[in-house]
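Reviewer 2 asked us to include a model.

Predict the structure of this chain.
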Amino acid sequence: MDHSVDVVVVGAGPAGCTTAILLGRAGLSVALLEAHKDPAHYKRLCTHSIRSATLPTLKRLGLDKVFDELGAVRHHENGWTKRGWIHERTEDAHGYNIRRVTLDPALRATAAAVPGVELTMGARVRELISDRDDRVAGVVAEIGGKQQRVLSRIVVGADGYTSKVAELAGVPGKISPNNRFGYQAGYHNVSLPQGWSGAGWVQEPVINVNYVFVNNDGVAMLAAFHSKDGLADFKRDREAALLSSFAFSKPPRNRGSVHPYGNPVSWYS
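Predicted model (structure tokens):
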């Protein structure tokens, strides 16, 4: 039997959940379809930090209160380039550092609680449905091993950069060269200057970038985004290379120490 809603949203990540919440609160019926079956699923390749520019939207969604209750760290930017430090110090303009293992399930729970939003886990979109005018009018999704038609006025593809919706719709993607690789790891007992929730370093002229973000649960994410020219050397010992890159990423006027185990990184102004 066909299921009919106003909007189908494919993908229950941050973009999909935000879309579903806003449309549901506007009075529309929304089918929010997520391919992963596990309600606790979360994206792993991420620095687990949300920029301050999103704060107005987070407040509109009511997620700022949710994040505070979950112990998310309010984040102000600290960035260093060869031109010196840049600090974000406006209290009413802050981001959040929150682990994706905490964030993703919370977003889905918030979306599912909105009247009119129906979250279905383990729903894989296989086809787009077209009406007689060749306009998209829903999807065919595989749910529990069975094909189900979900009819809608609008289909929103929020299913990532390898979007199945975009592929089925024949929407061309834009491919840009990627000359960097990324590597990250979580650590306990990472110390930063008093009042800091994270920082980023841009090293020139190679343009290697390092970040550290203090997250909820006392876990700090250390991330390196470096030129692919150094990938082979980095792979020989990933953890040592990651920590070493932070040792060399500090500006000359700072002093610090690196300890590979226990308390991996410390900075002192």
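The mean pLDDT is 88. Residues 100-112 form the longest helix (13 residues). We have added this to the supplementary material.
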